[in-house]
Design brief:
The chain has 252 residues and is mainly α. The chain folds into two domains: 106 residues, no CATH class; 107 residues, no CATH class. Helix content is 56%, strand content 5%. It has eleven helices and two strands. Strand 1 and strand 2 form a beta hairpin. Helix 6 runs antiparallel to helix 7. 6% of the residues are buried.
């Protein structure tokens, strides 16, 4: 009896090792992709790679570090898949403007209703419909009007900064310029001026701060690192309730 148990143990051990090897080969199948393309790239890592830095560094800081390390065009890996980073203005213009309507372009899939319907992510046919619907909002005349509104918000912000400097006040610069951004968005989108400490400002800022995850949990963190895990845990990147509230202008 013990002899058969011994055989069963080794059968299971062999099966476990085989599965582990197959999973490794599957996960690392793209490890030489950028090397074969002769493209400068971030070193392949089986577990998250540069994505792990997003847990303790802002996204733009991680991207800036990679940009300074590799230059304007380089490869990386996300979820074990090759990803091309482009920081060349003329090439970006071709990708995002000239070639955006091409039917063979790659569509990024998200398990999130908001991200999935962004103009840069939708399929070409839907992209054409969205472009037709949004183009009237970005005519040269309306852009000139928006520039005047943004200039007004910038002037108001600079005056607030001058007063704070004159009074030698300590200023939270992130929150200070965050107010400027929200003020410009609210003024251009809803025609609402966000005066400091006003009820409208409080309501708008609360909604903006909670657009992303209301609570960071291990499942949410894993979902941001591994897209397939997001489908399993059904975790949304955006807080839909708060996102919907920002579509309605604050009551005045």
């Amino acid at each position: 009896m013990s002899f058969f148990s011994f055989l069963v143990f080794y059968d299971w051990l062999f099966l476990a090792i085989t599965i582990a090897v197959l999973l490794y080969l599957r996960a690392s199948r793209h490890r030489n992709y950028w090397r074969n393309q002769n493209v400068v790239h971030e070193k392949f890592s089986l577990f998250f790679g540069s994505q792990i830095k997003h847990l303790y560094k802002p996204l733009h800081v991680v991207d800036d570090e990679l940009y300074r390390k590799h230059g304007r065009l380089f490869g990386s890996f996300e979820d074990g898949k090759p990803v091309l980073y482009v920081a060349e203005p003329e090439l970006l213009k071709s990708i995002l403007v000239k070639d955006a309507a091409l039917t063979q372009r790659k569509v990024v899939e998200f398990d999130d209703p908001i991200l999935s319907n962004l103009m840069v992510n939708v399929p070409p046919q839907q992209w054409k419909k969205l472009r037709t619907a949004t183009s009237p909002a970005f005519t040269s005349g309306k852009l000139r009007k928006m520039q005047a509104i943004i200039d007004s918000c910038a002037h108001f912000t600079s005056e607030r900064l001058k007063k704070a400097a004159t009074a030698s006040e300590d200023v939270d610069m992130k929150g200070f310029y965050g107010h400027f951004t929200l003020d410009a968005v609210a003024s251009c989108s809803f025609g609402v001026k966000l005066s400091p400490n006003s009820p409208e400002e409080g309501s708008f800022i609360r909604s903006a701060k909670n657009v992303f995850f209301a609570e960071v949990t291990p499942a949410v963190m894993l979902s941001t690192l591994v897209q397939k895990a997001g489908q399993a845990f059904r975790k949304r990147v955006f807080n839909e309730k708060r996102s919907l509230s920002t579509r309605t202008p604050p009551s005045t």
